[in-house]
Amino acid sequence: DGGPGPVLLRLAPEPYIRLLPLAFYSLLSYFDDALLREEAFLHVAVDMYLKLICLFVAGETSAVSALATRSQDLQGQGDPVGLITKARHFLLQSIPRCPQRSFLNVAELLAARGDCDPEVSAALLSRQQAVPDADLYQEPQL
After folding, report:
1. What stretch or stretches form a coiled coil here (predicted)?
2. CA distance 61 to 119
């Protein structure tokens, strides 16, 4: 129904699923500004960021550091703190550039893990509150 994504998530081993946020934010340099206009992108980016922080707090980033020392393709990706810093900077720069409709579903993400990064949460909530309620501007139906 939803394309190949759900099927791939069911087929991938659990350790790889847990490391998905690391892979997502390791590709930051390849993200295009056109992605920011996609309605679902902000939701995915925030979700991956919050999961990345949870990985770091849980101490599960040592696997990435070990892989980075063995693989030349991953050189420079072995620093989890650097990756979190880049991801945070990316989000804080992207939030003002995302369309208003992207902020409709971020409250559910922040309710679960919003206390991980208060500055990102505040930026998202302030932008979400700036979204005008569509029902306020519609004429009543008689």
Report:
1. none
2. 23
In a domain, 37, yes or no: yes
Which CA distances in Å does 98 have to 101, 117, 128, 132?
8, 19, 11, 15
Report residue 13 as tokens.
Answer: 């081993």
Domain-embedded: residue 100 = yes
Task: Give per-residue pLDDT as tens, 6-34.
Answer: 787 788 888 788 888 888 888 888 888 88
Burial bucket for residue 52 (CB in 10 Å: 0-12, 13-18, 19+): buried
Neighbours of 124 (CB within 10 A): 24
Q: 41-58 and 106-113 helices cross at what angle (nearest 10)?
A: 10
pLDDT of 58-106, one tens digit each? 877 665 555 545 544 444 555 778 888 999 999 999 988 888 888 887 8
The size of the chain, in residues, is 142
* Residue span of the structural domain in which 66 resides: 13-127
Token pair for residue 120? 């990102």
